[in-house]
Amino acid sequence: MIIFMNGNKIPNTLELLEKKLDYSFKDKDILKKALTHSSYSNEVKHKERLVCNERLEFLGDSVLSLIVSDFIYNNYTQFDEGILTRVRASVVCEGSLYEFASELELGSFMYLGHGELISQGRKRKSILADAFEAVLAAIYLDGGMEKAKKFLLPIIKLAIEKAATGTNEDYKSMLQKIVQQTPEENLEYILVSEEGPPHDRYFTFNVMLNSNLLGTGRGRSKREAEQLAAEEALKLLGAIDEESL
Q1: In terms of Cα–Cα distance, which of 22, 234, 54, 16 is closest to 143?
Q2: Looking at 22, 54, 61, 99, which residue is catalytic?
């Protein structure tokens, strides 16, 4: 469904986003604020000026850091302060937040000014990363810390695990390096199925080498499903084994 707000084309409804977030806001306005970029709120042509998401982003940064710090502190008791700091930094960086926001398709829900709309602002890394923090803050203010944790932890656990185990390369990168040794080979990830309601979606991907199936993965996000498919492919190729995981 496509809706308009003061002439701003919004591809999806806030109700759909709430399903993706698995959280229903008591105060719908705070969610709108979290999705309002300064380029939109600053356009004087709007009859009703909206407050942008910058203050929520500020708060969300702290909420994010606290939840991640608490989780890794309690789950990785073998790590000293230096390692904990590095793990946290890798999870809360702009690149990671951009990936989390992209999985939720936050860009398609945002209110952007005309300039940002025509310059592909819905896909801009900084805008999406900031919006993710703002949405986290909105959930925290609307529902409290436990709701914020319930939303955030399933999204970030894979990134935390990767950072905590010291794996510099993910399974997709490892598989790509192997395949690149033979330039004529073509590696492709194919979406097989997408199941479940928007707030409880599961994706299944096949990874194909030319026309040959190397692996299949099923996960709560496209990224997770692709990683699991790549992991299965690496096992098939003998690049990793069960004992090493």
Answers
A1: 22
A2: 61
At residue 10, what are phi and psi to the nearest 5 degrees?
-115, 110
Contact 104, 93 (CB under 8 A): no
Between 229 and 238, whose confidence is greater? 229
Best-predicted range by mean pLDDT (70-84, 125-139, 160-174, 209-223): 125-139
Q: Which residues of 219-241 are buried (b: 16+ CB within 10 A; e: fewer)?
A: bbbbbbbbbbbbbbbbbeeeebe
Query: Active site includes 94?
Result: no
What number of residues does the chain have?
245
**Per-residue pLDDT at 183:** 77
DSSP structure class, residue 194? E
Residues 116 and 37: beta-carbon distance below 8 Å: yes
The answer to whether the predicted template modeling score (pTM) of the entire model surpasses 0.70 is no
44 three-class SS? coil
204: helix, coil or strand?
Answer: strand
User: Residues 43, 57, 133, 231: which is the catalytic one?
Assistant: 133
Residue 169 catalytic?
no
| 20 vs 7: CA distance, rounded Å | 25
